[in-house]
Design brief:
This protein folds into two domains: 8-79 and 230-314, Rossmann fold (3-Layer(aba) Sandwich), CATH 3.40.50.620; 84-184, 3-Layer(aba) Sandwich (Rossmann fold). Helices cover 30% and strands 17% of the residues. The chain is built from nine helices and twelve strands. Strand 1, helix 1 and strand 2 form a beta-alpha-beta unit. Helix 5 (183-193) crosses helix 6 (206-219). The radius of gyration is 20 Å and the shape is elongated.
Length: 315
Amino acid sequence: MSHAARYRGRFAPSPTGPLHFGSLIAALASYADARAHGGEWLLRIDDIDEPRARGDAETDILATLERYGFEWDGPVVRQSAQAARYADALASLDQRHAVYQCACTRRDLESARLGKCGERIYPGTCRDGIPPERALREDRAWRVRVDAATIGFHDRLQGQQQQNLARDVGDFIVKRADGLYAYQLCVVVDDADSAITDLVRGADLLASTARQIFLQRKLGFAEPAYLHVPIALNAAGEKLSKQTRARSLPNDPVPALISAWRFLDQPLTAPLPSSVADFWRYAIRAWVPARLPPVPMLPAPAVYERPGPSLRDSV
């Protein structure tokens, strides 16, 4: 973080379902870090993927955050209102000849080799023009040319990171063939527009960070500092998420907040906080980033894993 600028952090859930224990870990870490630095904490709803968004999810997310004592600065920002900004960014990349149209389908790329991130590495089929056999396809994505870029950055928890984008990712999509802007472009534009100085988020996004830094540099945006905290896994070794049927957060916030605090290996003294206000008074004073487990993933407490009829009463 540049100390010339006031700390500005953010939390950016997707409205595809209710918040769960994995969401709480990311929210708690980003909020505690921002407030411990005397900084601001912004809230953004990452609803750019409209087909996956649920109409009631945003209302539920906001109510849960309020119940758990999170207080955000300024109005809630929604990606769905930012399409013009993403279009401007794409046009800027196009003016620099940094992007090109691609007519490849997922099926076309099934034989492409897998990179370290577990994604297919784009082989550059359309980089120098769409091949004649694909020219009649109307659906086109936009990809950014990564050239031979090797991106290095220091993560406050996970340490020095480096990724060769050409070797590990290939030219990646910034606008999808269905017309939706891709997450990597949206998040870079959003964070720049909000003047975010520090990103505290789950380590599942560590592999995306080099792509985001690449875009920040291409677009002339400031680069925030990064801290990627461990994500929570269920008993099957899967990341807690809506897709893996993670339990929604319980109505009683205090035990869940304390569980998330312990998950992050933060200091906890007796007597334990008995109210949300007590918890946050204590947590903002006691936050020690140096104590965070320097690993990308850890098992979640079993009670927060799978949905069950007794969730609201069992925590």
